[in-house]
């Protein structure tokens, strides 16, 4: 028996139903579809809002995280009242108010190699709105193994990427997947994360709505899904490009899920040399006892203006030009936001003969957590 | 001269410029000219063996150079070369 609609549903979806290319057949396909959205953050928020509004019959939400104050600049599913609450559960509550005619399944868990196939198997289409390379490769591989379409979107600062992977077209030809485009991930730390590199809040809104549109096209069969193509959007210049992606004959077959943290982490890269550290508590003691030492902030000036613990500001990329500013006859403590950049600077200076250096463990975030709760964490 | 579009994550190594004019008659010579102009880009694009890193794609126009003649792909004065890195968004 074909799927039917109540009077309330017909009225709700009427603006879809009167589109000749879409009509009630398109709406029926949406109602019969099961879509899993991996990540309910910046990308997941608009994807979930629009898929729920459009009438996708069953929506799964995977997210292990809780809502944080710093999410609200872009993750428009959530409000101030939701801070500290489960993202997946909060999203379901919000979306049920938007569309009571559809079903939701909450997967309040981290997606792993152990659970991905079990979670994915019941869905038709997967929308990848994750925030790290390990999960992106996991999502891709699980989709390849289970023969699911992977609607992919990714963002950084002002740039967005979008594609549809592992899509079989009307002639039966299967399109490329993520590994055909990027066979291996960048080493950790090379590409800054949103936490380090930032992201314009509007950007995931724009890219996420396009991602939702591709999901709807895949489900309903209208138009030409973005398979075999990579859409690039530079929102600053408003330049868009659509590049071809080919199936790479050198891509190894995906037959099983692997350890993705190892694949994307330090497993295939040389381990970085450990650096001598000082904790925020120890640094506080040094300050309180008026110990003679130099404190150097290696962040950018605009970060110093958000929050600082004093010291000399020498941004990371100016360190080598300002070596004369760095003391050699007393201890020197380097700090940044989370401790990564200052550790890099420490290694650079150590190689130049400085043996008097300490890295503030956990950076200024650690100071804010352990010493000064009034300091803004960013 | 051909033009190379620098992706946002790499612009800090290229004086924050979005596009760079380069000399050369193929992709490799164009990229070599780029890293001569901006030496900090070299280790971002090439690995220790001098190969283009596998998480970076190089395009001539809309085409991945792997579908053409790789680094030997000929370029013309109006060629637009794109360097496309993997980005993940969100967390590290």
UniProtKB/TrEMBL annotation, chain A:
Please name the GO terms that the record assigns under molecular function: ATP binding; molybdopterin-synthase adenylyltransferase activity; sulfotransferase activity; thiosulfate-cyanide sulfurtransferase activity; ubiquitin-like modifier activating enzyme activity
What are the record keywords, sorted?
ATP-binding, Nucleotide-binding, Nucleotidyltransferase, Transferase
Q: List the catalysed reactions.
A: [molybdopterin-synthase sulfur-carrier protein]-C-terminal Gly-Gly + ATP + H(+) = [molybdopterin-synthase sulfur-carrier protein]-C-terminal Gly-Gly-AMP + diphosphate
Q: Which InterPro entries match?
A: Rhodanese-like_dom (IPR001763), Rhodanese-like_dom_sf (IPR036873), ThiF/MoeB/HesA (IPR045886), ThiF_NAD_FAD-bd (IPR000594), Ubiquitin-activating_enz (IPR035985)
- Rhodanese domain segment(s): 289-376
Q: How does it assemble?
A: Homodimer. Forms a stable heterotetrameric complex of 2 MoeB and 2 MoaD during adenylation of MoaD.
State the protein's name: Molybdopterin-synthase adenylyltransferase
Automatic annotation (TrEMBL), chain B:
- The name under which this protein is listed is Molybdopterin synthase subunit MoaD
**Family matches, as Pfam families:** ThiS (PF02597)
Classification via InterPro entries: Beta-grasp_dom_sf, Mopterin_synth/thiamin_S_b, Sulfur_Carrier/Prot_Modifier, ThiS/MoaD-like
Species of provenance: Reichenbachiella agariperforans
């Amino acid at each position: 028996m074909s799927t039917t609609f109540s009077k309330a549903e017909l009225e709700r979806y009427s603006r879809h139903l009167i589109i000749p290319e879409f009509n009630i057949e398109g709406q029926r396909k949406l109602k019969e579809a099961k879509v899993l959205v991996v990540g309910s953050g910046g990308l997941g928020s608009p994807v979930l809002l629009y898929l729920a509004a459009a009438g996708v019959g069953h929506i799964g939400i995977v997210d292990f995280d809780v809502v944080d104050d710093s999410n609200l600049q872009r993750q428009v599913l959530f409000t101030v009242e939701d801070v500290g609450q489960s993202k997946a559960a909060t999203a379901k509550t919000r979306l049920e108010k938007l569309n009571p005619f559809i079903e939701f399944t909450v997967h309040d868990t981290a997606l792993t190699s152990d659970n991905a196939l079990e979670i994915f198997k019941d869905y038709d289409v997967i929308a990848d709105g994750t925030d790290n390379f390990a999960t992106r490769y996991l999502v891709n591989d699980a989709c390849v193994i289970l023969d699911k379409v992977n609607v992919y979107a990714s963002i950084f600062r002002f740039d967005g990427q979008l594609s549809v992977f592992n899509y079989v077209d009307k002639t039966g030809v299967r399109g490329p997947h993520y590994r055909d485009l990027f066979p291996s991930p960048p080493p950790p730390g090379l590409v800054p994360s949103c936490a380090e590199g930032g992201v314009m809040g509007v950007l995931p809104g724009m890219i996420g709505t396009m991602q939702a549109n591709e999901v709807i096209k895949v489900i309903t069969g209208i138009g030409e899904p973005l398979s075999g193509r990579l859409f690039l959007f530079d929102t600053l210049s408003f330049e868009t490009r659509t590049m071809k992606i080919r199936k790479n004959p050198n891509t190894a077959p995906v037959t099983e899920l692997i350890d993705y943290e190892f694949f994307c982490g330090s497993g295939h890269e040389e381990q970085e040399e450990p650096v001598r550290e000082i904790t925020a508590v120890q640094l506080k003691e040094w300050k309180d006892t008026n110990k003679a030492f130099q404190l150097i902030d290696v962040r950018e000036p605009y970060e110093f203006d958000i929050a600082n613990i004093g010291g000399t500001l020498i941004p990371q990329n100016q360190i080598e030009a300002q070596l004369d500013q760095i003391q050699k006859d007393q201890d020197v403590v380097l700090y940044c936001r989370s401790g990564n950049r200052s550790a890099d600077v420490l290694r650079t200076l150590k190689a130049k003969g400085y043996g008097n250096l300490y890295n503030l463990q956990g950076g200024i975030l650690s100071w804010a957590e352990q010493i000064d709760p009034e300091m803004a964490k960013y | 001269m051909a033009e190379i579009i620098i992706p946002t994550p790499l612009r800090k190594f290229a004086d924050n410029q979005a596009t760079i004019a380069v000399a050369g008659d193929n992709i490799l010579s164009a990229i070599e000219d780029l890293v001569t102009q901006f030496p900090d880009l070299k280790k971002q694009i090439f690995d220790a063996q001098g190969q283009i890193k596998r998480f970076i794609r190089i395009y001539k126009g809309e085409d991945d150079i792997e579908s053409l003649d790789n680094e030997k792909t000929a370029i013309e004065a109006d060629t637009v070369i794109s360097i496309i890195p993997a980005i993940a968004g969100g967390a590290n």
